[in-house]
């Protein structure tokens, strides 16, 4: 009886770690996509931010 309980605890621990690992992989993929898009649209993002700050400075904000 004790060995089967121990096996179930190991399985639960492994499944919990597996889910955490999958979440870590998902976060890594999302960060990679964000960096990739930032590199592709670097000039457009820079122009947009400069335009926003210029309009804020011109409005006396």
Written overview of the protein:
With about 60 residues, the protein is an all-alpha fold. It has one domain (about 1-60). The chain is about 90% helix and about 0% strand. The model has no long low-confidence stretch (mean pLDDT about 85).
Coarse morphology: elongated
Compute the separation of the termini in Å: 72 Å
How would a crystallographer describe the biggest sheet? none
**Uncertain residue segments:** none
Query: What oligomeric arrangement do these chains adopt?
Result: single chain
User: How many strands in all?
Assistant: 0
Helix proportion: over 70%
Strand percentage, roughly? under 5%
The number of helices is 2
Order of helices and strands: HH
Q: Tell me the structural class.
A: mainly alpha
Mean pLDDT: 83
Task: Provide a brief overview of the structure.
By secondary structure, the chain is an all-alpha fold.
Break the fold down into its secondary structure elements and pairings.
Elements: H1 2-40, H2 42-58
Keywords:
mainly alpha, 61 residues, elongated
